Amino acid sequence: MTLRFSVLASGSTGNAFYIESEKEKILVDAGLSGKQMDKLLSEVRVDPTKLTGILVTHEHSDHIKGLGIIARKYNLPIYANEKTWKAMEGSIGKIALDQKFHFGMEEVKTFSDMDIESFGVSHDAAEPMFYTFRHDNKKVALVTDLGYVSERIKKTVEDADAYIFEANHDVGMLRMGRYPWNVKRRILGDSGHVSNEDCGLALYDIIGNQTKRIYLAHLSQDNNMKDLARMSVSNVLEERGVAVNKTIKIMDTDPKKATDLYEVV
């Protein structure tokens, strides 16, 4: 086995990601209730008592809602940077000192047979960061909750075998939608979220010959649709010569249902 993963949930109502190697079973974020987290893990036949740790991206509630519950229930170590720890401590309940670990920005940590690299993103949180995962010459990149994709991020995540990448909104739907203008401005700004088109443009810059799957993540329930996101990203890539559905498969994610456990080959 190389790397296997599932997008357990993705969207404004809650986010969680699971990835495993031969020796590690890691959860990234726990943005749903403890009961929902258990249900999502069971959907992909993962025993939560076998988890080896939880990584945190940032302190927004749709990423940490069930974090304290899951960590205490299964006695799991939590990894986050210093500013995120300070920002979320009042929201996750008491965590034992021996479960609290520091994972700095732009750092690589080795978890037995998996190397995990953190990288900063532009989002309106204390110090948000996401991760790439490497094992046995395979690479998976988790990239959501960012206003724009910087050249530094592109360099960090390029040439991955699989991407979980934000396609939050259709710009037209957002502009015409019911949100107040200050919320629209936040989403469209450099600390907000990536649109379908910008997702496609960024992916074109970073995908490599070994890239096989792209999971479109963190879709807005009000300002996007799965079919629209998939079509928009596919069109951007196809216009630039990428053979979508032949060499690369674009996959949906869901706010309430886990994707099938996928093995990176």
Structure description:
The protein is α/β, with parallel strands linked by helices. Helices cover 28% and strands 24% of the residues. It is built from nine helices and 14 strands. The strands form two sheets. A seven-stranded mixed sheet has the order 6-5-4-3-2-1-14. The protein has a seven-stranded mixed sheet with strand order 7-8-9-10-11-12-13. Strand 10 (138-143), helix 5 (151-157) and strand 11 form a beta-alpha-beta unit. Helix 8 (196-206) packs across helix 9. The chain is globular, with a radius of gyration of 17 Å.
Strand content: 15-25%
The ordered string of helix (H) and strand (E) elements is EEEHEHHEHEEEEEHEHHHEHEE
Shape: globular
Adjacency order of strands in the biggest sheet: 6-5-4-3-2-1-14
Number of helices: 9
What is the CA-CA span between the terminal residues?
9 Å
Count of extended strands:
14
Rg, Å, rounded: 17 Å
Structural class: alpha/beta
Mean pLDDT: 96
Unreliable spans? none
Bin the helical content.
25-40%
* Largest sheet features: 7 strands, mixed
Notable traits:
alpha/beta; 7-stranded mixed beta sheet
Break the fold down into its secondary structure elements and pairings:
Blueprint: E1 4-9, E2 16-20, E3 25-28, H1 34-43, E4 53-55, H2 61-64, H3 67-74, E5 78-80, H4 82-88, E6 100-102, E7 108-111, E8 114-120, E9 129-135, E10 138-143, H5 151-157, E11 162-166, H6 171-176, H7 181-188, H8 196-206, E12 213-217, H9 226-239, E13 249-251, E14 262-263
Parallel strand pairs: 3-4, 4-5, 5-6, 10-11, 11-12, 12-13
Antiparallel strand pairs: 1-2, 1-14, 2-3, 7-8, 8-9, 9-10
Helix pairs in contact: 8-9
